[in-house]
Each structure stands twice: as C-alpha cells, then as structure tokens.
C-alpha cells in the first residue's frame, strides 16, 4: 500500500498545477463522442467518491463485499462538469483523494485480503481493488496528458 499512497500523494501535489497548464479551450474541447479533459477529471472525482465509500465499507460489511457499479456517463452528465469552474473540479478531486489516502493508510493489513465481488464471476482482494483504483486513475491521466509521467 505504501507505493499507492506515495503515488496518490504525489498526484495530489502535482496534478492541480499540471492541469492548470492547459488553456480553457484545451480543457473543454470534446473529441467526437468523448469526454473533455474537464469531464475526465470530473469522472475521476466520481470514481474517487465511489471508491472512497467502498474502501470504508469493505472493512465492515459482510464478505465477499459486492462492488456495485455506477453509470459513469450519467454521473458525468448530471453533474455538468463541463460547465463547473475548473478550479472547483480539481479542488473536489484533490480533497477526495486526500481522504482516500487517509483511509488507505489506516487499513489493517489483515483486511487487505478481504474478497470483493466485482461482478461477472470475478473477484478481487481488497488490495487488488485499491490497486485497480490507481490503475484506473493513471489510465485517464494518460488520456488527458498523453503520458502517465506526470
């Protein structure tokens, strides 16, 4: 978990200044049928919110913990990230991920092996679910920046 915590702390520190290097036009440009950079960041807020709750609930609810998916396109649409001031979106992302770092930092080692049912007869350990959160985050950072080296 230390590597994940270190990466999240790094992103919390550097992402705000890195995304602010984009022009307003770059932030709101929507490739045909895809999210803008601002909407991608909004989606990452939704992902963080959902995973933040999962990371707490997994520790205290019946095993295996059933991971309930959410309709990501609907979430991005209803929250209208495209029209929210960008500093509010990055502020939300930063705050949620700071809290995720706190939660992950306090997970007892024995709970990391708890089982999570992710659907379609697939199961992750709690540890793998946390790793998948970071993998998903990095996937979208590559979309935004063209590289994971941010």
What report would you give on this structure?
The protein starts with a helix and ends in a 5-residue tail after the last helix. The protein has one domain (2-145): dinb family like domain (Four Helix Bundle (Hemerythrin (Met), subunit A), Up-down Bundle). The chain is 61% helix and 7% strand. It contains six helices and three strands; from the N terminus they run αααβααββα. A hairpin with a 2-residue loop joins β2 (115-119) and β3 (122-125). With 150 residues, it is mainly alpha-helical. The protein has a three-stranded mixed β-sheet with strand order 1-2-3. It has helices at 2-19, 24-28, 37-57, 72-79, 86-105, 126-145; strands spanning 65-66, 115-119, 122-125. The longest helix is centred in the N-terminal third of the chain and has 21 residues, at 37-57.
Search tags:
150 residues, mainly alpha, 7% strand
Helix segment tally: 6
Query: Rg from C-alpha positions?
Result: 16 Å
What is the CATH topology assignment? Answer: Four Helix Bundle (Hemerythrin (Met), subunit A)
**Main sheet, how many strands, which sense, barrel?**
3 strands, mixed
Strand order of the largest sheet: 1-2-3
- Share in β-strands: 5-15%
Number of strands: 3
Mean pLDDT: 96
Architecture, CATH level 2?
A: Up-down Bundle
User: Domains counted in the coordinates: how many?
Assistant: 1
Helix content: 55-70%
CATH class: Mainly Alpha
Class from helix and strand fractions: mainly alpha
Order of helices and strands: HHHEHHEEH
Shape descriptor: globular
The stretches of 5 or more residues where confidence is low (pLDDT under 50) are none
| Fourth-level CATH superfamily | dinb family like domain
Distance between the termini: 20 Å
